[in-house]
Design brief:
heterodimer; A: extended; B: two-stranded antiparallel sheet; disordered N terminus
Chain lengths: ~220, ~260
């Protein structure tokens, strides 16, 4: 708290100069922690970090780093628990040199956005079904409806059997718990859509298939 | 020392009754929450969660405000300590018990109403059936609400004014506490569910199972969790987290009542 006040006083330019100086003098006399850095030093470091960030943004290092992180996130999407353990083991055993990533491509960002929206919707619906009570009492029914609809449109395009199974279990549970006829109907439609998607091409699955499908759609 | 601190407000959250066409309610389900802060509860019920578009305690709002009754000025005319407050709520009499611990100045005998260890020991060794507070009330001729029901019609949870011990529930909670799953959870996460949580889960399970039995007419669910948190911290977030848990329990019990006895009757 003391450090925050000291930094705020240093940054504030609207306060009366004399009053600010007096307040700084008194607050500085309260600073007894020997590990505290002075606000001047902290501001110098912040400036240095900002310049470094600007330089890296200019030469493309930040963009490369973000792209690598996104490709790693995409590769991890819909992974089985066993596969997750194996990749974590390889990553740690190689001291971070090995990280599973998807190949660079123009459709990665779109597929990643879909994967993230799927995860968000699944997390929301899971939180509603976990308590074992009527979801429409704890959450706005329109938002549940939208979430189910969005999930049913997203999951088949991701070609992930694990995510499909997760979505199916969640939607089945939601259908059992809700007493709202519109949500029940939407769940039934979504489950039907998931089943159709699964039977369409059982061999064509995985995140690579999603990226291929996104490219073909264009 | 803690017991003497006048912050324990024993509060009965409400009643859920199911009628079977008779003029008198046939079944009563009571949710008893020790140390419940009425102001915090009311304020949190009024707040709308922007994420969900519903009250921050949706199930409590749904059951008690939208489908029941909320008393604006409900209070007991006793000191805000657990034992005196529950004695008033459970009997409807003026306070006979005046503190969590009392002693007889003439004989020096101590009445420790919160200490349940001697009660469990006494029950196991000599079939003593009543907690000390219940014995005192019985001697004063003040019956408890459960006394209006016969033994087979009652499912009483673990509480201060307890008659008898449900050893099966306790056994199941203990088995879960020392199960391989619980031990694995401790190793993996550095902690597992507490004994209080497991006992609450087992009690809730028993209550929901008993709702399917038409012979059982009095059911209660007592929790001291809110009070324990309130004693440990004054952080509102921690208390609201416990209230959220309570709201979910309320919802599960309500759904079980709907499924078993039919509230429309």
């Amino acid at each position: 708290l003391l450090f925050a006040i000291r930094a705020a006083l240093r940054l504030d330019q609207n306060m009366d100069t004399e009053l600010r100086a007096e307040m700084r003098r008194r607050i500085d006399s309260l600073a007894v922690n020997p590990l505290d850095a002075s606000p001047t030093r902290e501001m110098e470091l912040a400036r240095a970090r900002f310049h470094l960030l600007e330089n890296q943004a200019g030469n493309g290092a930040v963009a490369r780093h973000v792209d690598q992180q996104r490709r790693a996130e995409l590769a991890a999407f819909g992974r089985t628990h066993r596969s997750e353990v194996l990749h974590a083991l390889l990553h740690n055993a190689s001291f971070g040199l090995y990280t599973m990533r998807v190949k660079p491509g123009p459709d990665n960002l779109e597929v990643l956005a879909r994967a993230r929206r799927t995860e968000t919707n699944l997390a929301l619906l899971d939180s509603l079904t976990d308590s074992g009570t009527k979801p429409e009492v704890v959450f706005d029914v329109e938002r549940i409806h939208t979430s189910v609809k969005e999930l049913s449109s997203l999951v088949p395009s991701l070609h992930s059997p694990l995510v499909s199974a997760h979505a199916e279990a969640t939607l089945t549970r939601l259908q059992q718990l809700t007493q709202d006829s519109a949500v029940q109907r939407e769940c039934a439609l979504a489950l039907n859509r998931l089943n159709q998607g699964r039977h369409a091409d059982p061999k064509n699955h995985g995140i690579a298939a999603s990226i291929r499908a996104a490219a073909e759609a264009k | 020392v803690r017991r003497a601190v006048p912050t324990l407000a024993a509060t009965c959250l409400g009643l859920l009754c199911a009628y079977t066409g008779r003029t008198q309610p046939a079944r009563i389900v009571i949710l008893k929450v020790d140390g419940l802060n009425a102001d915090l509860l009311s304020r949190t019920m009024d707040e709308i969660d922007p994420r969900s578009g519903k009250s921050k305690l949706p199930w409590i709002t749904y059951v008690f405000r939208e489908n029941g009754t909320v008393f604006e000025n409900f209070y007991t005319r006793g000191i805000s300590l657990s034992a005196p407050s529950w004695s008033i709520l459970d009997t409807g009499h003026h306070a006979i018990i005046r503190g969590n611990v009392e002693y007889d100045r003439y004989t020096g005998y101590v009445y420790d109403y919160l200490n349940f260890f001697p009660f469990y020991l006494g029950n196991a060794r000599a079939h003593d059936e009543d907690m000390p507070a219940v014995q005192v009330l019985a001697r004063a001729g003040a019956p408890l609400l459960i006394d209006a029901y016969s033994y087979s019609e009652v499912l009483q949870s673990f509480q201060l004014f307890q008659r008898g011990v449900r050893w099966n529930t306790l056994e199941r909670a203990l088995k879960q506490r020392f199960s391989s799953k619980a031990i694995l959870s401790i190793v993996e996460n550095g902690g597992g569910p507490s004994m209080d949580e497991l006992l609450a889960q087992a009690t809730e399970k028993d209550l929901i199972a008993a709702l399917h039995n038409p012979q059982v007419l009095y059911l209660d669910f007592y929790t001291g969790d809110v009070d324990h948190v309130a004693h440990a911290t004054n952080q509102q977030a921690a208390l609201i987290e416990r209230l959220n848990w309570l709201a979910a329990v309320t919802g599960r019990i309500w759904i079980a009542i709907e499924a078993t006895s039919g509230l429309s009757q």
